[in-house]
Structure prediction request, 293 residues.
Amino acid sequence: IPELPILILPDYTSSNIPIMLFPVEINGKWGYIDEHGNMAYEPQFEYAREFSENLAPVRNYNGMWGYIDKKNGYIIPLYFNDADKFSEGVAPARINKLYGYIDKEGEYVISPQFDIAKPFSDGMAAVKMSDQWGFINRAGILTIPPRFATAPSDFSQGLAAIKDTNGKYGFIDKKGNLAIFPDFEMADSFKEGLAPVRMGQRWGFVNKSGKFIISPKYAEAKQFSNGLAAVRINGKWGYINKSGIAVIKPKFELAENFSKGLAKVTVITAERGIEDGYIDTKGKIIWTTDKLG
Prediction:
């Protein structure tokens, strides 16, 4: 096992252990803040992904990936060439060229055999073998054989978005049967009962019957989370609720999905140029690169 670099650990002596930590980049190094915008892990990683099931994948400067928890540093050593988030108790991780799935001890429970592997969702995970995508179950068995040329979305609420041979997107069920006819230019998975889809040049949201609940009028749209979805209008990103009302006005250069009450956004200010930050569900800036805002 490789020797672990010394980490600067979070100091929670004057606060409770946070509910959630969020990755931030400062001057080319990655660290984590808590939900109040306080620094938890000082910027010290080459790259850092989001926390999930109390662990986060991080890459060190030797190019190797391991996992940290919220307070003790490395829980799974820097052992992998690539690593993704935990879900349903396992995480995709690559050694050399192939991906398998590890448990929280860092042991493979589904052996490395896939060219690409995505995290589990709804009991299924998308995997790529011989240039085609299919789905495995938690036992590692291919329940939907590889037959899609383009990466499908995660399964969520029983459905996954796929691209058919005509280049259109629809949704399949867990048996691999079509549930929503491929009618869309693009589509992502269902969250909170709605899925973002593109019809022509515009994005809207459909329900599980494939019916538009929010009509296609956005230049881009992302999934709902915490009751809000990021949409792009006139070149700027904001957030709408499920009635299609803009509750956080479009003013961001980029905007990501909410997770545990915060969303990552990018702003441009006259004084400081491009700046990453996190906002809460009211649109209030909780943290920015230089902690102003």
